[in-house]
Write a structure and sequence with these properties.
heterodimer; A: mainly alpha; 4 helices; disordered C terminus; B: mainly alpha; two-stranded antiparallel ribbon; globular
Chain lengths: ~100, ~350
């Protein structure tokens, strides 16, 4: 199996796992939406509740989305790492090197 | 702020149409944000308000989805080597100061001229900033394209980098050494704009390119870090007052996390000038949209006399054009990405 194929195969498995986790999270939120909404809207000492919730969802659902794109073959250009970091001016580059 | 809206009025009942609408706008907004660093969320606040969500809840819920989206986008683009975290954090802190100044200005205007005056101020800021900056960015993007697509550092950025004014900061990732005094105004402008029109990146990204001297790719990726810092700070304030509707936030996030990663992938297939082109196109179309919204506020202030039918048509046209801006931006990104992928496959086949 080529590197690309094995990467996509691995992504498919991860997409299923994270997809199930994401579905479970969304299912929980919308099943108990009134209670969760009420707690998240209490404010003051409950301020961190909505923030923690979106961090959790962004990890689980973000991983799901990332693996879905990889599994269906939508990935970054192979030249992605080559085209970045164009140092601005020669002077700045020298200074940056000297400072480090 | 709890007293502003009655408890029962704050949160709406969500129907399937509303959920699908938010998911779709979240996806398209995420796509644009992942590509140009920001600019995808401005349709969401008026969009949520059109579903009956009160303005403050719409702003708070929108902001609560922006910072995790920016975080995911920044992580994705960091993997491509496009993010200068140090720059993002330093400019992000000054942007927070800009946000606070922007909020105070808004409060003063609200106290002096009421909601119509505040809306008019926002629209005037929209039109002036977007026409001026958008026009400049578009001109530069087309010039860069004509000259072969290779970006050059502006003379102003070179001049600012050469001024040795304490404290000088070295940004290893972008290879820039510049005084804090020149990065701070970029953050302040981004924060001020974020507090006024909710899209700080329309000042932040051009500032990082033309004043600091970053490439468009790195500026747009670093803007995601700035958006994360600003969004987190803003969300903590809104959440403290209990204004976040977590259901709205999570639905938008469901779409935007797909979009932001697709937009980030898209940046690896295009030349730098394409980032500027998409950003400028969206900015100029949005400027038209906000221009159409101004007669309504001028009428409310008694400075213009238009009948209700005309005002209604202008308001609806304004929102439609704003949505169109986002869709056109998304179309350009997807088209550029498809062409880029096709060219890469062709090159691989020929090699």
């Amino acid at each position: 199996m080529s590197t690309i194929e094995s990467r996509r195969s691995e992504a498919k498995t991860k997409a299923v796992v994270f997809g199930l986790m994401s579905t479970a999270l969304y299912g929980t939120v919308f099943t108990f939406s009134e209670a969760i909404l009420e707690y998240c809207a209490r404010g003051h000492f409950y301020t961190l509740l909505p923030v923690a919730t979106v961090f959790l969802f962004s990890y689980i659902h973000g991983s799901f989305a990332s693996n879905v794109w990889t599994a269906i073959g939508i990935e970054a250009s192979s030249s992605a790492s080559k085209k970045v970091t164009k140092t601005t001016t020669t002077t700045a580059r020298k200074q940056a090197v000297a400072a480090n | 702020m709890h007293d502003v809206l009655a408890e029962g009025m704050r949160f709406i009942d969500l129907g399937l149409v509303g959920i699908l609408f938010l998911f779709f706008v979240g996806f398209v907004g995420g796509l644009v944000s992942g590509f140009i660093g920001s600019g995808g969320a401005f349709v969401l606040t008026p969009g949520m308000m059109s579903l009956g969500v009160p303005g403050t809840v719409a702003v708070a819920s929108n902001m609560c989805h922006k910072f995790p989206k920016a975080l995911v986008g920044a992580i994705k683009r960091y993997r491509y080597g496009q993010v200068d975290i140090k720059m993002g954090l330093i400019v992000g802190v000054s942007a927070e100061v800009g946000v606070q100044i922007g909020i105070q200005i808004q409060r003063l205007i609200l106290a002096a001229w009421g909601p119509a005056g505040s809306n008019l101020y926002v629209s005037v800021a929209f039109v002036l900033v977007l026409v001026f900056v958008g026009g400049f960015v578009l001109k530069d993007a087309l010039k860069t394209k004509r000259e072969g697509g290779e970006e050059k550092v502006t003379n102003l950025a070179k001049k600012l980098q050469s001024i040795n004014l304490w404290p000088m900061i070295t940004f290893k990732q972008s290879g820039i050494r510049i005084s804090l005094w020149f990065t701070a105004p970029v953050g302040l402008a981004a924060g001020l704009l974020a507090a006024t029109i909710a899209v700080g990146g329309f000042a932040g990204v051009p500032g990082l390119i033309y004043l600091v001297g970053m490439t468009s790719i790195m500026a747009s990726a670093t803007e995601l870090v700035i958006a994360f810092v600003m969004g987190l700070g803003g969300t903590l304030i809104w959440a403290w007052f209990g204004m976040v509707d977590i259901r709205l936030t999570l639905i938008i996030l469901a779409g935007s996390l797909f979009g932001v990663q697709l937009g980030a992938i898209g940046t690896t297939y295009v030349k730098d000038w394409m980032i500027k082109f998409v950003m400028a196109t969206i900015m100029l179309i949005v400027a038209v949209s906000r221009g159409l919204a101004m007669p309504k506020y001028l009428s409310q202030l008694g400075l213009m006399n238009l009948n209700d039918l005309t005002l209604n048509i202008l308001t609806k046209s304004s929102f439609s054009i704003m949505t169109l801006a986002l869709l056109i931006g998304a179309f350009i990104i997807l088209k550029a990405m498809v062409l880029g992928r096709r060219a890469e496959r062709l090159a691989a086949t020929q090699a």
